[in-house]
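HUMAN:
Sorry, I am quite new to this. Are you able to go through these amino acid letters and fold codes? The numbers rather puzzle me.
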Amino acid sequence: MQIADKYTPQQIEAKWYDYWIENRLFHSEPDDREPFTVVIPPPNVTGMLHMGHMLNNTLQDVLVRRARMTGRNACWVPGMDHASIATEAKVVARLKEQGIEKSQLTREEFLRHAWEWKEQYGGVILRQLRKLGASCDWERTAFTMDEARTESVVRVFCDLYDKGKIYRGVRMVNWDPSARTALSDEEVVFKESHGKLYYLRYRIEGTDRHIVVATTRPETILGDTALCVNPADPRYADLPGDARVVVPLVGRSIPVIRDEYVDIEFGTGALKVTPAHDVNDYMLGEKYGLETIDIFNDDGTINDKVGLYAGMDRFELRERIEGDLDAAGLLDRTEPYTNNVGYSERTGAAIEPKLSMQWFLSMRELAEPAIRAVMEDEIRFVPEKYKNTYRHWMENIKDWCISRQLWWGQRIPAYYLPGGGCVVAPTAEEALEKARAKSGDATLRLSDLRQDEDVLDTWFSSWLWPISVFDGIRHPHNPEIDYYYPADDLVTAPDIIFFWVARMIMAGYEYRREKPFRNVYFTGIVRDKLGRKMSKQLGNSPDPLDLITQYGADGMRVAMLLSSSAGNDVMFDEALCEQGRNFGNKIWNAYRLVNGWKADETLAQSENNRLAVEWFGQTLGRALREIDADFASYRISEALMKAYKLFWDDFSGLYLEMAKPAFGQPVDCATLAATRGFFDALMRLLHPFMPFVTEELWQALAPRRAGESIMVAPMPEPVAADERLLARFELAKEVVSSVRNIRNQKNLPQKEALTLRVVADENYPAEYEPVIRKMANLSTIETVAEKDPAAAAFIVKTTQYFVPLAGCIDPEAERQKLEKELAYYEGFLAGVLKKLSNERFVSSAPEKVVANERAKRSDAEAKITALREQLAALK
């Protein structure tokens, strides 16, 4: 197969991806090989490819492609998450553009619009991943709301309910007024917020005296049902036990209660208690039997329960009420105040604590085996530092609020009876049977039952992901779940360790009595070169597809991997994409060079070529073993760097130069065969990192059968390296480098053959003389017994080398240069001697500093001696 003269990744990438798809090379079925399973962290159906996805999916693809090439049956399952909150918001916005309000539609009508939106716009990100080269088994693409996943979720809900782990009750929840739904604690992001501390006057009933209370949320006075002070606070010791105060503006009389919960040191030591809108106030309300007044509508506006400010937005009211309090003489003062405020991770709206009837999953018992699995390394975290983060959260776990007040999602399978109570069942028909049995009314019809309006939290679908993608909930012992489960590697960001990773582990032990995966590789956050997190808001995040278009997917993959290591943030610089593309170009041109060699069957292999082949074979073997070790420890960036240097420095920079024939001359068959074999091995080694360019050149390297691909070719096997041989070659490399440096210093033409003289000892690599002669362009190498003062000298380890310069240089120019160099070192030596002759310096300076100065003296004296000898030889 012929390749183009110029490396143009855009011309080869689509071609090979289509080839892989057409030949079903990504598809996996259970067989007698060892499986290697990876489940994709399902991106939101609303998602678009961003730099975090690029990093995560590049790492997954590297692991999956390498596993295929090591003989394992690799199965990378792709999919999408239905993303209840985000998707419903998109659909509602689209309907508004059409002049339709959600409230005007029935649930069924709304869901028809939602599915239409999903089919039209959903899953863009999965199509985009193909541009990256992701080798997912697209035939297995799953969706958290498809039939198999939905039925699995409903069955799990019913099972956990029957086990007594799911319950329903009124609890204080995190309420998102924008999405109009409850959120779990993990979906709340706390941010520093700059606001005010408002000091309000509560008049003590029957007196003219006031108690001043500090609050950051004056609008919640509408729901106050008590005022609390610390019983040990001397400021309020004279208050009678039945004291009551009047809520500012509202005029409601509320009791003063005493509880040690109140911090005497904060503010005025008095706390307004609003049980419906603060978690701690709710607990006080429960303790003292206080009335609960919910003042907010679901959208964050004020309801009409109090009769004041009805319909106003909560933040508009905050500004309004400050003025009204001040006008009424009930605002003592305000102060700037900074505190942490919770925001919805999905919509960005400020969270309202809200009492609400919700469904909860009891987590304590589920967490126990999941804690043990990670802490005992049954499940391995990379890096390990996340184990402590995980343990802290799991040991302090709270019950999971699993209901959401939405329509897009799996509807909770709870059915309410006309006379009260409810039944939980996977289907309406089973619910009717249960309802008849529970009520004793055999005449009940399905229309008499009312299904719960709420849907389940999206994470309640994705926590089953490693099981449900193989249909292991509905069919617990089907051949696929038994073969592919548990997964091998999970690659994910640490910010969903609680949302997803921990919950999948809990589900795995609850439903398979086994871990869901063996290893969890946590990626870092992608940041720009200034260290800022990449985001659309900052405008510092490039479009990954634009980068792929400009630099090619291989170049983009190299950029992501070179800047990444497990758990550490990725400092991304677009220059790395250029470096990646240049590497592809280097590989391309190396192939063209080798492909241009012509073999002569009559030529015997030269000793130089034999040594070159032997050395690179050993170098390749050592690199393969080191890269294997890197993968075993998930040092994927380090593995790529070793492969990069192996190809760029060792193969292209050294081996090809050593082995290439003179211009226009043929090469012996043995060397050409070995070189092509090395190139084949290097392509296979690099394939997981750079799948496109390696496939193109591997296919070009030799005739292939239809459907054959490098992606299922075996990874090259490492051979045991002769470390002594490699160490001796390093000595030869240094000799060549030193001769080249002399050429540069003395302005000696590269084409001019030189003589090299050596005072040989045990560190002289005599066996590599043919390589040294060719690489340094030497006419002869002579062994001598003593120094040659007229020659340019250098030392490698303990071996002395000399390059005779007679007839090669201008004596007068060389003399002037040597005299200038001598003057410099004499001046340098004088400064060092002055320092060492200072007894105070020698006695008081650290021993290392003094030793360093003495070493400088020895080096300078040796240089001076050598320069004087060279000058003497010129006279």
About this structure: The radius of gyration is 38 Å.
